[in-house]
Amino acid sequence: PMRKFLIAATMVLALPAFAAEVAKDAELGTTMEEVKASLVEMGYEVRKMKMEDGKIEAYAVLDAKLSEVFVDPATGLVTKIVDK
User: Fold this and answer.
1) Which residues pair with 51 in a beta bridge?
2) Phi, psi torsion values for 57, nearest 5 degrees
3) How far apart are CA 71 and CA 67, in angstroms?
4) Measured between alpha carbons, how far is 78 from 69 in angstroms, rounded to an integer?
5) Where residue 21 falls among pLDDT bands split at 50, 70, 90?
6) What is the Cα–Cα distance from 12 to 18, expressed in whole angstroms?
7) What are phi and psi of 64, to 5 degrees?
8) Which candidate in 8, 23, 58, 82 could, as Cys together with 69 as Cys, close a disulfide (CB 3.0–4.6 Å)?
9) Over 50: is that where the pLDDT of 78 sits?
10) Model confidence band, residue 36 (pLDDT cutoffs 50, 70, 90)
11) How far, in Å, CA of 77 to CA of 63, rounded?
């Protein structure tokens, strides 16, 4: 019985994290690659990324809702989120 429990527990850990909306001041990373990986891990589909006005800008979709997420590359923190 213990072995079955361990297999089940391992399978649960392997599942992707539950979708969670990104929040202001969340730490996503200091590069476009890190920001994209963080958003994907949270359940977002990242449509487009660019640098604008010194900020990393990501267009990401969660539950059919598009958000524009701005990240300060110096700190890796979300500075602004605009829901489209």
Assistant:
1) 56
2) -115, 125
3) 13
4) 7
5) confident
6) 11
7) 65, 15
8) 58
9) yes
10) very high
11) 23
